[in-house]
């Protein structure tokens, strides 16, 4: 019975978690990344829709604040894009944990941002990073997204 209950509790994370890749800076990757409507790379992102994701990680060190950045790459070319200014303060989007962070603290960060792209029918790499007060990465990961028209 206990195994059945544990399986039922863990099943949603198995279904919605996607595999992600490390960034070139060798920062830790999150324990889990969940993207609404996506179970495997590349995720399909509709122009004009929302990219809605949660990620879980354990804070590797203390920091008073966190800055979020989302970079988009087409091959090695960085597509000009920045998260909206109001979404760059990652402390405002924590579902679990709070700033200042302490080492070993469990954190759940939620990002819901509009999907803007100049054209559809391409696959891009997305790189999401959360950095500490000194600009050093706390976590960073890459994943692929297929851009489709609305």
UniProtKB/TrEMBL annotation:
Pfam families with a match to the protein in the record: E1_DerP2_DerF2 (PF02221)
Keywords of this entry: Secreted, Signal
GO-annotated biological processes: intracellular cholesterol transport
Protein name: MD-2-related lipid-recognition domain-containing protein
Family under the similarity heading: Belongs to the NPC2 family.
GO cellular component annotations of the record: extracellular region
SUPFAM superfamilies: E set domains (SSF81296)
Top-level lineage group: Eukaryota
Main location class: secreted
Location relative to the cell: Secreted
InterPro entries: Ig_E-set, ML_dom, ML_Npc2-like
Span of domain MD-2-related lipid-recognition: 20-145
Signal peptide, first to last residue: 1-17
């Amino acid at each position: 019975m206990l195994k059945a209950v544990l399986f039922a509790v863990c099943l949603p994370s198995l279904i919605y978690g996607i595999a992600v890749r490390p960034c070139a800076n060798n920062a830790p990757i999150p324990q889990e990344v969940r993207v609404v409507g996506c179970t495997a790379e590349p995720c399909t992102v509709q122009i004009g829709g929302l990219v809605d994701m949660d990620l879980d990680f354990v804070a590797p060190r203390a920091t008073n604040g966190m800055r979020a950045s989302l970079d988009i790459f087409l091959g090695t070319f960085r597509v000009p894009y920045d998260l909206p200014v109001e979404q760059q303060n990652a402390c405002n989007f924590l579902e679990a944990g709070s700033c200042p962070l302490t080492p070993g603290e469990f954190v759940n960060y939620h990002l819901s941002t509009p999907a803007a792209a100049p054209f559809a029918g391409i696959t891009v790499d997305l790189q999401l990073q959360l950095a500490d007060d000194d600009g050093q990465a706390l976590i960073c990961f890459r994943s692929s997204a297929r851009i489709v028209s609305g």
